[in-house]
Amino acid sequence: MIKVLVVDDDPLVRGGLKLMLGGAADVEVVGEAADGAEVRDAVTRSRPDVVLMDVRMPVLDGIAATAALGRRTGEPAPAVVMLTTFDADETVLAALRAGAAGFLLKHTPPEQIVDAVRRAAAGEPVLSPDVTRSVIAMAARQGPDPGSARTRMDLLTERERDVARAVAEGLSNVEIAERLHLSRSSIKATISSALTRLDLTNRIQLAIIAHEADRT
Fold it and tell me: CA-to-CA distance for 24 and 64, rounded, in angstroms?
């Protein structure tokens, strides 16, 4: 079962998400929170695999709450999927830099939200490849000197670097496995080891570093 925590300041939205997710046989809503300030305690209590997180909340917004989850030590971080009614590039980028695994609009069809939960739990990005490439490129343009990114890439093994560059192209695990002639489980393990080595939360952060490192 994929365990999900729902975070939104609107009780109607929380109720709708819980009802929607409750229809999936492999998904269980294990908790809810009404503000980002409640998220850390809720995650500690319920230990979700995925957090559906609203962006705008009155006390602590979803981006700050996501960043706070990434600063926890000694506990595995759940995948965070941001939910919002608007899709400004700056908001998407801020969420991804904070450690979000993806970004969905609240009017996304129910079956796509359920699919996004499954992909986030599996370590896949919850953004289309085109959006992923666009956001990564924008992040790289706004990022630090590429020399610092290259220094970080040098910490990775050759296989980890190859996989990171493929992730930066917006490729899925299946596509990377086919390109590098490796198994999907090997790709997933390689991404996980690269994230650990660079102290990152998700594959999109890894992709941003890879993209920055390849800038001339």
Answer: 29
Nearest one of 41, 31, 24 to 8, comparing CA atoms: 31
Q: How far apart are CA 99 and CA 81, in angstroms?
A: 10
The CB density around residue 148, as the number of other CB atoms within 10 Å, is 13
- What's the CA gap between 18 and 5, in Å, rounded? 9
What are the pLDDT digits (tens) for 148-197? 888 999 999 999 999 999 988 878 888 999 999 999 999 999 999 999 99
pLDDT, one tens digit per residue, over 46-71 is 999 999 999 999 999 999 999 998 88
- Between CA 105 and CA 190 the distance in angstroms is 30
Q: At 6, list the tokens.
A: 């729902």
Beta strand residue intervals within the chain, DSSP E: 2-7, 27-33, 50-54, 79-84, 102-105
Q: What are phi and psi of 134, to 5 degrees?
A: -65, -45
- Matching residue, tokens 């294990």: 30
Contacts of 159 (CB under 8 A, 6+ apart): 180, 190
Question: Are the beta carbons of 83 and 6 closer than 8 angstroms?
Answer: no
